[in-house]
Specification:
The protein is an alpha/beta fold. It contains 31 helices and 14 strands.
Length: about 675
């Protein structure tokens, strides 16, 4: 066994060395390393590739050489103290101190920052010193880490720490409640971790191996999940510290990472990535820019307050519904709990939603308790049968109106007080859901009645209009048609009269929903019968679905998305949604070079990576068509020209937000190719 492991290590390290000689990109590097610790002599080069600074110029060349900041004295002392601690040779110390002071001084001046000993910059640079980089390389790596991985508000607002508290509450509500009771906010212990990616509290060999994995993973939110693993792993120690003071407990928590050893890192990072897969992903879109956006963008006001006021982790309605398309073992699967009053529920609801009237908690606690028991029984049954409505994660849905949602908040708080794991709320409630489904209400909702639906009535509250402006609804006319059409035939009521109240459901021993979906239900509805409005060639109605594959299980090449988008021969690129023959859609990119059209599909579990889904020679494009009702729904048809016309052999379909620009540029490139062939 040891010989086999040694042989495997030798093979991948040889492959790695060869790739580095050939100047490989980040995607190739990550495919070779597969999250493993890298050889010490190659670490400097590998980190630069992972951080995107390989071969970058000397930014410090623009430094004016003036060391005149108010905090210059303390900075110089701190640099000298760090170098003394590292134990370098005496003749090297002066040079290293000078480099450190230059780097921090230029960083402060170029970004308008103020140095303090508590900001973690020197702790971030310390592991980089072990790589024996040049001063320019050292600055570039430090800058990239600060820009990509350190939360922007770490020392300014508390948004990052409020968010971490919500993540902790989601996975371990009991531990979160204990810390809340002791008034130990996350910044008291997580600040030293977040501001330097745990390097201040871990030994250098541990930090180096951890950063090997960290930079390969390329996820700025990974530090949240590493911190989560630390707390959950030490939960018994923390919970047993009830008699100790707030300060002592916080200091104890801060020191926990110091117990890590180098051989623990693989399991440590694997656990963090496991927690990532068991967490809703809406928060990434909501807080990516505020926490990790470019330094040129202003910090968004109120981010800390917004997340700080959240009762539990919010989930977008788009994510909630997309989760129904996942395989049973993939990502987060939700059990949706619709907490609106019975009359609102009966006027339209999701086919997979369990009804739990929040008003019952005050009006009839006994029936509410019975309904909660029914909820957990139904969830267990759905999980056991593999229903498409099954999920361990409870997501509560309100109306989106304050007058009703105050009761929903009480229900959610009740579940949290009982330390129920995996609790979330649908952001915007039914108002947001209704807006997202506005063109497919009959397909996406069961028993939708526009006369009694609160979102359809003339007195629709402001919450619905707010939902309309939400990012969840951008381009929703095209993005949701197929997704929610798949739910159109899932549920039909057979045993419950929908005009009755929940109390009657329970008394009659019926499930308090129309019917929860079973694993035998089939989802599926695709784009069809849409006429064209823009045509380069003719659009043959009904031809699309015959040509398009309904699945694509063949192995695909994995590449770095950034690397491909920045290739010098790319004449045009844009984001799009690739639409398969069965109507399923995938976030993708179209890239056009002088000779080919490439389709790169995002890999959700590998941020920054993509599959090469298709390579199409521009000379093989014979038609580009669009639909009358959906001019951004574009079909590319490929084939050969024959005497009787075109022979279509394949096709791709996309939803492109700027379809006019895309088709115009692609047509120009095609004409160039055809002109070259003719000549």
């Amino acid at each position: 066994m040891a010989e086999a492991e040694f042989e495997e290590d030798t093979i991948w390290m040889t492959e790695l060395e060869t790739a580095l000689v050939e100047e490989c990109d980040f995607g190739t590097l990550r495919n070779i390393c597969k999250g493993r610790s890298v050889p010490e002599h190659l670490r400097g080069e590998i980190w630069q590739i992972c951080l995107g600074v390989q071969g970058k110029g000397d930014a410090l060349a623009a430094f004016d050489g003036l060391y005149d900041m108010e905090e210059q004295g303390p900075l110089r002392e701190d640099c000298a103290a760090l170098v003394d601690k590292l134990g370098n040779e005496e003749e090297d110390k002066v040079s290293i101190v000078s480099d450190l002071e230059s780097i921090i001084t230029f960083y402060c001046k170029s970004r308008g920052e103020t140095y303090t000993a508590s900001n973690g910059w020197l702790e971030t640079i310390q592991p980089l010193l072990a790589l024996k980089l040049s001063r320019a390389e050292l600055y570039n790596c430090f800058y990239a880490i600060q820009n990509k991985y350190i939360p922007r508000d770490c020392l300014k607002t508390s948004g990052a720490f409020h968010l971490f508290r919500l993540l902790l509450q989601y996975h371990d509500p009991e531990l979160c409640s204990f810390l809340d009771t002791k008034k130990i906010t996350a910044d008291l212990f997580a600040m030293p971790w977040f501001r330097c990616l745990l390097s201040a509290t871990c030994d250098l060999p541990v930090t180096l191996k951890m950063w090997d994995v960290y930079f390969q993973h390329a996820d700025p939110f990974l530090v949240f999940f590493l911190a989560l693993v630390i707390l959950v792993n030490a939960r018994e120690i923390i919970l047993s510290s009830d008699e100790e003071s707030k300060q002592i407990i916080a200091e104890k928590i801060v020191s926990f990472p110091s117990g890590l050893e180098a051989e623990d890192i693989e399991d440590f990072c694997s656990l963090a990535q496991y927690y990532e897969t068991k967490t809703p992903q809406s928060f990434r879109r909501d807080y990516q820019m505020p926490l990790f956006g470019t330094s040129l963008a202003p910090v968004q006001e109120g981010v800390g307050e917004q997340v700080g006021q959240a009762l539990c982790l919010p989930v977008s309605v788009m994510e909630l519904l997309q989760a129904s398309e996942l395989a049973a073992e993939d990502g987060v699967r939700y059990f949706i709990v619709d907490c609106r009053p019975a009359d609102q529920y009966n006027s339209g609801h999701l086919p997979t939603a369990f009804h739990l009237d929040a008003n019952l908690m005050l009006q009839n606690p006994v029936e509410f308790s019975t309904a909660v028991h029914a909820l957990f029984a139904t969830r267990s049954s759905a999980l056991a049968t593999g229903s498409v409505a099954a999920g361990e994660h409870l997501c509560f849905l309100g109306s989106g109106r304050e007058e009703e949602d105050q009761f929903v908040n009480m229900v959610v708080a009740n579940f949290l007080q009982k330390s129920q794991q995996y609790i979330s709320m649908a952001r915007g409630g039914y108002a947001a859901l209704h807006q997202l489904l506005r063109d497919n209400l009959g397909e996406g909702l069961v028993n939708h009645n526009s006369r009694t639906c609160i979102a359809c009535s003339p007195g629709t509250p402001s919450s619905a209009s707010d939902a309309e402006n939400s990012d969840d609804f951008a381009n929703s006319k095209t993005l949701t048609r197929d997704l929610f059409g798949k739910l159109s035939t899932v549920v039909k009521s057979k045993s419950v009269e929908m005009k009755e109240k929940l109390a009657n459901y329970i008394k009659n021993d019926q499930t308090p929903i129309e019917r929860h979906v079973s694993n035998t239900d089939r989802l599926g509805k695709r784009y069809r019968n849409m006429a064209n409005v823009f045509t380069i060639g003719d659009d043959d109605e009904g031809e699309d679905n015959m040509m398009l594959p309904v699945s694509d299980d063949e192995p695909k090449e994995v590449v770095s998305l950034d690397t491909w988008l920045q290739k010098p021969d790319v004449a045009y690129s844009c984001q799009c949604q690739e639409v398969l023959g069965n109507g399923y859609m995938f976030p993708s990119y179209l890239l056009v070079t002088g000779s080919h059209l490439y389709v790169l599909r995002d890999i959700p579990k590998k941020k920054g990576m993509a599959y090469i889904q298709a390579r199409r020679a521009l000379g093989s494009v014979v038609k580009i068509t669009s639909k009358k009702k959906h001019p951004d729904f574009i079909t590319f048809k490929y084939g050969t020209s024959e005497d009787e016309g075109f022979h279509i052999t394949d096709m791709d379909r996309f939803i492109i937000s700027k379809a006019g620009d895309a088709t115009r540029i692609i047509k120009q490139q095609i004409m160039k190719v055809l002109d070259a062939l003719d000549s």
